[in-house]
Design goal:
By secondary structure, this protein is α+β, with helices and mostly antiparallel strands. It is built from 4 helices and 12 strands; from the N terminus they run E-E-E-H-H-E-E-H-E-H-E-E-E-E-E-E.
Length: 263
């Protein structure tokens, strides 16, 4: 589901290609550029791939869909992450991991539905039939969806055609977005939905804080600042997070069951 069937050809020099469409094996009518960039300029590759008119139009259509799809995926992942604020009682690790898993699953399904589709034979790809799948020094590795075209391409360049099953290109882009955007949105939503409430205990004894009838936090008394403390410095105040809405907050001596409550 996540992988695409095809053939890889690794070439150590600028490639030679016959004038046949890389997707359907028809006569070449035009070319489309496939590229790969890297952190180093020498790793960048820009190669013209032969196509017939119909297959070139499919390459163009797939390229036009990619930008809006990735943008929509960002918003969808953010929405999935923000939905975590609807379940504030769940543990924080669950609230961060679950949106990432759901968003990644949606990306997996989307990549499968869009990239697994193939036009009628003899075309072999709904988008790019050849793409640069890797670079290393002078070597460039091409992934080809048309096995017969790849075999002739390899022979023309004195290389070897090897069966391969790389990850689908849309999935490679999408999973990273899902795993970054969804947890970030979840964290932001949780912080916004559950603001911090600081607790000052100036009674001189340890107190038990109660929220809605349940024990929430045991708080030590605030120590007065020492003679060598900087102005405004002091011990960090304990705090709790509560979701927005009315709550009954109470306190009692530590270990006691009775509590004095206020809103």
């Amino acid at each position: 589901m996540l992988r695409q069937e095809g053939t890889e050809v690794a070439i150590d020099a600028p490639p030679y290609m016959e004038a046949r469409c890389a997707s359907c094996d028809g006569l070449q009518e035009t070319t489309r550029q496939t590229s790969r960039t890297g952190l180093r300029a020498r790793d960048a590759r820009f190669v013209q791939i032969p196509y017939c008119g119909a297959c070139a139009a499919r390459v163009d259509a797939a390229a036009r869909r990619r930008g809006p799809l990735l943008l929509g995926g960002i918003f969808a992942s953010a929405g999935v992450g923000a939905a975590a604020s609807l379940f504030p009682w769940l543990p924080i690790p669950v609230l961060l991991a679950a949106p990432a898993a759901v968003a990644a699953g949606l990306w997996m399904l989307t990549a499968h539905l869009l990239e697994a589709w193939r036009p009628p034979a003899p075309a072999t790809a709904g988008g790019e039939a050849v793409r640069v799948s890797g670079t290393r020094g002078q070597r460039t590795t091409f992934f080809c969806t048309n096995v017969a075209w790849a075999a002739r391409f390899a022979a023309l360049n004195r290389a070897e055609a090897v069966p391969a099953r790389p990850l689908r290109s849309l999935w490679r882009s999408g999973w990273a977005l899902a795993l970054i955007v969804a947890p970030a949105a979840a964290f932001t939503a949780l912080v916004s939905a559950k603001p911090v409430i600081h607790i000052d205990n100036a009674t001189g004894e340890r107190l038990q804080i109660w929220v809605d009838g349940e024990p929430a936090e045991e708080v030590a008394p605030i120590a007065p600042p020492g003679p060598h403390d900087r102005e405004g410095a002091g011990p960090e105040r304990p705090s709790i997070r509560l979701p927005y809405g009315p709550h009954t907050i109470g306190w009692s001596p530590a270990g006691a069951t009775a509590r004095r409550e206020y809103h």
